Amino acid sequence: MNDLIQEMEIYAAENDIPIMQKEGIEFFKQLIQKYKIKSILEIGTAIGYSAIQLASLDSEIQIVSIERDEERYQRAVENVAKSQCGDQIKLVLADALECEIEGQFDCIFIDAAKAQYIRFFEKYKKNLNNDGLIVSDNLSFHGYVEHPELQMSRNLRQLVGKIKKYIDFLENNDEFETEFVKLGDGIAISRKKH
Ligand code: SAH
Ligand code: MG
């Protein structure tokens, strides 16, 4: 299993695939254990790295994970088959903004196109159990979000603007309260207000 994880980390580094950073995934694993999360809907599988890491925590954890890129999805299928948690992970090849997922989850993990986070959140909050968590990754976007003085291309500046809007959306949300954690590439944890 550790060999597979390491192999995926090398593949991701060589092919510029933005898998979750070590510090971030370790924190996320602790969160899953602390809140006894047993079902996760992941938006953005990439090659299956985070899904395999989380599923291997506990054989009772079930994950549904959506990826729109066919090549990455195929890689994920291969990696999941090599892992010992194949029966815990269901991979879906689709655009998360266009498909419908049935069922309720203890955690929704948003880790796909950064410009669409508000839309993912609004679309999938209906799939969250009442006490569940919505976890969002990359809210610091390699530090650019906190450091607007850094040199950025127009595209990057727009993307950073979208992430700031999402942070603002979370900070001013009537339904959810959010905690921001400065670990990995910046993680937000949102739960329903009661
Ligand atoms: N969660 C993974 C990393 C995901 S990287 C891990 O930590 O291991 C983000 C992925 O989201 C990319 O592979 C990208 O193709 C995918 N993605 C982006 N927008 C998407 C969308 N609308 N629907 C489905 N997948 C999407
Ligand atoms: Mg990420």
List the helices and strands and how they pair.
Layout (H helix, E strand, L loop, with lengths): L1 H13 L7 H13 L4 E5 L5 H7 L6 E6 L2 H13 L6 E5 L11 E6 L6 H8 L3 E10 L16 H18 L4 E6 L5 E6 L2
Parallel strand pairs: 1-2, 1-4, 2-3, 4-5
Antiparallel strand pairs: 5-7, 6-7
Radius of gyration: 16 Å
- For the record, the count of structural domains works out to 1
Tally of individual helices: 6
Could you give the order of the helices and strands?
Answer: HHEHEHEEHEHEE
CATH evolutionary superfamily: Vaccinia Virus protein VP39
Structural class by SSE content: alpha/beta
Number of strands: 7
CATH structural class: Alpha Beta
List bound small molecules. S-adenosyl-L-homocysteine, magnesium ion
